[in-house]
Amino acid sequence: MTVLVLYATIEGHTRKIAEHAAARLEAAGQAVFLGDIREPGFAVPGRFDGVLICAPIHIGRYPSPVAQFVTEWKDALAQVPTALVSVSLAIHSDSAEERAEAEAYPAKLEKKTGFHIPKVHHAAGALKFLEYDFFKRALMRRIAAKEGGPVDTSRDHEFTDWQALDAFVQEFADDVALARRA
Ligand SMILES: Cc1cc2nc3c(=O)[nH]c(=O)nc-3n(C[C@H](O)[C@H](O)[C@H](O)COP(=O)(O)O)c2cc1C
Q: Which InterPro entries does its entry note (predicted)?
């Protein structure tokens, strides 16, 4: 059987994270199905022996297809190791208050869906100035300036700690292998 890796994304960085996680899972010996959470297609969670969801925070919440998917499939998700990679910029902040806010997003998703996510990794996202339209670029530059972040809008800025992500994905792969043997 296979591990299902699903992602939601607005500007593409969480897809990059999901692709990276999928490659890491494959390197750990898992077969992987990677898909967009809006179009999981035949990827019915009950047919997989592990599910990894990667989702970004935009204006204080995950894109709505994430809660929709978790709500619809929570019974199947409860049967296999399930994990969430929560992507945000606040988790990268120097302010403990901002980081605490980022750390609280998975609990909000749990409250909304009634599903407890057993394993969560917080990954710092990216400022994709080259992808944003004029207004979004101005908004994100203002937020970055306030936070002491980068304001060079001539390029994108990536904050993800890929090694920390790899360690989390390896733990998840071990959980899947263990559950499969049980
Ligand atoms: C319009 C907008 C709103 C955002 N709102 C938040 C937010 O409320 N909290 C946060 O921590 N990050 C926020 N971010 C940062 C995103 O989580 C980060 O850029 C992430 O890498 C986006 O992932 P994606 O490229 O997969 O959409 C926001 C980004 C944008 C562009």
A: Flavodoxin_dom, Flavoprotein-like_sf, Protoporphyrinogen_IX_DH
